Amino acid sequence: MSDVLNAIASVIETRKKADPDTSYVASLNAAGLDKMLEKVGEEAIEVILAAKNAADSDKHRVEVINEVADLVFHTLVMLDRLGISHNAVLETLASRQGISGLEEKASRNHS
Fold first, then answer.
1. How many domains, in total, are found in the chain?
2. Using CA atoms, how far apart are residues 4 and 104, in angstroms rounded to an integer?
3. 65 is in which domain, residue-wise?
4. Which of 29, 71, 79, 104 has its Cα between 20 and 30 A from that of 89?
5. In tens digits, what is the pLDDT along the chain, a chain of 111 residues?
6. What's the CATH number where 90 sits?
7. Residue 11 counted as domain residue
8. Whole-model pTM?
9. How many CB atoms lie within 10 A of CB 65?
């Protein structure tokens, strides 16, 4: 999985400097952080809407997968814009393994 994320991050890094008329990533960068955040929010809502219907059919499960992929992609573009490596997110997830979700959340609330 991290190989896929590394490959996508590499493409994002390359394309952000491309012509915004020919590159979606470049067009997002040209539009600015607010536009990127809007896209992340839009994709998150689309995940929620697809998930609400997922129990109904396999078709809707495929929609969830596609919408989550869109959300991950737009999140990677946002992270790149902020100068945050997706590897930092993966490291944080790895550090949480073996810790109760309730315990981990409580530890963040007291920091």
1. 1
2. 27
3. 34-109
4. 29
5. 679 999 999 999 999 999 999 999 999 999 999 999 999 999 999 999 999 888 777 778 899 999 999 999 999 999 999 999 999 999 999 998 887 777 767 777 655
6. 1.10.287
7. no
8. 0.85
9. 13
